[in-house]
Design a protein that fits this description.
Blueprint lengths: L5 H25 L3 H9 L4 H54 L2 H14 L23
Length: about 140
């Protein structure tokens, strides 16, 4: 079972990163010289052809490095957010325990939620102990 916060994490990081990606692509397109656009118009290109054959190839080439940097940043932020998720779960368990003094129940539920989210130190999609992940070859 997946962690309940994962869809919210995906949406939040998606919105956050997409704002940067849109600006980087727009900057790459703005970096194409105005002379290239004039040349496309003088050759009789339609606005769609100008975008497809002139602006996008050159604009994406200009924006390639910042886009790669954003995807690397996204990977870093997603791993950081998963660590924060565990810290937040631990904090909430301690808050519940201090509020009603039911420590065993609070920590049992917290542990169950942690394990249900794949929290075993290897990630939610990792193989479980004893489970074969590949067929063994005879030697």
């Amino acid at each position: 079972m997946a962690d309940a916060g994962v869809p919210l994490l995906d949406v939040g990081l998606g919105v956050f990163t997409s704002a940067f990606l849109v600006e980087e692509i727009a900057s790459g397109l703005r970096a194409v010289s105005h002379g290239q656009r004039e040349a496309a118009l003088s050759q009789g290109f339609t606005p769609w052809q100008e975008l497809r054959f002139i602006l996008l190839p050159q604009g994406l080439a200009n924006a390639w490095q910042p886009i790669v940097g954003q995807y690397l940043n996204l990977m870093k932020l997603s791993s950081l957010a998963s660590g924060i998720g565990f810290a937040e779960l631990t904090y909430q368990v301690r808050q519940i325990e201090s509020y009603n003094a039911h420590a065993p129940e609070a920590f049992a539920v917290g542990t169950a939620l942690y394990r249900a989210g794949g929290g075993d130190g290897r990630g939610a999609n990792a193989s479980r102990p004893g489970k074969k992940t590949a067929t063994e070859r005879p030697t």
